[in-house]
Amino acid sequence: MSNQDIAQLVRGLAESARTASFQLATASTEDKNRALERVAALLVESGADILRANERDLAEGRENGLSDALLDRLKIDDKRLEGIAAGVREVVALPDPVGEVIEAFTRPNGIRIERRRVPMGVVGIIYESRPNVTIDCAVLCLKSGNASLLRGGKEAFHTNGALANVLARALKETGFPEGSVQLIPTTDREALNAMLKLDGLIQCIIPRGGEGLIRFVTENSHVPVIKHYKGVCNLYLDRAADPAMAEAIAVNAKCQRPGVCNAIENLCVDREVAAKLLPPVARALREKGVELRVDREAGDILRETAPDLPTTPAKDSDWTEEYLDLILAVTVVDGVDGAVEWINRHGSGHSDAIVTTDETAAQTFLSGVDAAAVYWNASTRFTDGYEFGLGAEIGISTDKLHARGPMGLRELCSYKYVITGTGQIRG
Q: CA-to-CA distance for 135 and 85, rounded, in angstroms?
């Protein structure tokens, strides 16, 4: 296809989505839930087709040299497919945000003013290798009354197509317009360029993927973008940390799924307890296969207390790197104030955690760290729409305007003022 043909294709899909968005905005909760229930059922019924398509993508990914972490992000098995279907049903169970009265008041002249949640319209989602995003984003947009235009990456092309077929079938069977959820059927870069110029048809773009993709979208989009560039998440082990808890949280936050944006990339340890606390934590991480990139002080401590543990000297660039792999940068800091300063300088504002039994230190950390999610004695792996009770998420925002953190149904809404009078006129 020529660039002009691709641009016309994308515009046609966006126009169809815009038309559908007006019907979706007034759809009843019951109708939306019925469509989502059908999506969940069809995911299970079509499981064999979806898994076959996913295996094609995995095979091509191995041939193209994708890392184990990226292959894990791409993979769908029976358990993950059941989890995706369960997530759809969780969205069904959530309250419908559309029409919710955010606030209401009556003016001295008697007019009543309400601020109500309303859908944005058309939401464009641009994403890379995680095919579950196709379902998560589509169902959240549908439940919040938005049409969605999806542009997946080439790594998951076949899987995304199979999932889009499920969505299209469910919508057709439940009477929703075809334009309600659409997958752009090409991974040609020109489709992305065309999508970013449709500010009259698309109300919001949400990119999900690597920093390069997100920066490209942000720098070239005519449409407002909600984003996080990368997930450089940090864990600080305070002088009052419980050693067993510190070890468990560090291992979970790094190793449970290293290829996701809420896994930690930096470990900060209080200088006062580093010689005691760092060796067992480092050993537990090494036993899970984690490469440790250490600053000079952390390296000296480990060479003296755990000489059998291999480490790598950290470079300046390591502190701001999103590895998405079993690699962790380790530094020693001067107490909670030093940790807050260090994290605000090197982190990406995504998710940061402190382990401590000292409430004063915890509150200093929680109020001082500039991030979308801050944790006290819990793993950063909980920054997730499912774990926050949102049913799913359309993305995680590190922006401060409109939405921050995991974006669920309410974050996919704007609002309008509804004013009721009894004949008042302005003098």
A: 9
The superfamily in CATH containing domain 3-226+407-420 is Aldehyde Dehydrogenase; Chain A, domain 1 (3.40.605.10)
Starting at the earlier edge strand, list the strands of the sheet with 373-376: 312-313, 291-294, 327-333, 264-270, 233-237, 351-355, 373-376
User: How many C-beta neighbours within 10 Å does residue 298 have?
Assistant: 24
What is the CATH number that goes with domain 233-382? Answer: 3.40.309.10
Work out the number of other CB atoms within 10 angstroms of the CB of residue 309. Answer: 16
Convert the pLDDT of each residue in 204-230 to its tens digit: 999 988 888 999 999 999 999 998 888
How buried is 181 (Cβ within 10 angstroms: 0-12 exposed, 13-18 middle, 19+ buried)? buried
Cα–Cα dist 397/49, whole Å: 33
| pLDDT score recorded for residue 402 | 83
Cβ-proximal residues to 136 (8 Å cutoff; 6+ apart), any chain? 84, 87, 385, 392, 393, 394
What was the pLDDT predicted at 410? Answer: 93
Asked if pLDDT for residue 69 goes beyond 90, the answer is: no
Describe the strand order of the beta sheet including 101-106 as a list of residue ranges: 101-106, 112-119, 413-420
Residues forming CATH 3.40.605.10 domain(s) in the chain: 3-226+407-420
For residue 293, the SS3 value is: strand
Length of the chain: 427
Q: In which residue ranges of the chain is CATH 3.40.309.10 found? A: 233-382
pLDDT of residue 325: 93
Q: Quick one: which of 396, 343, 70, 368 has its CA closest to 229? A: 396
CA distance 18 to 272: 59
For position 391, what pLDDT does the model report?
Answer: 66
Alpha carbons 296 and 417: distance in angstroms, whole number: 58
pLDDT in tens, 149-181: 999 999 999 999 999 999 999 999 999 999 999
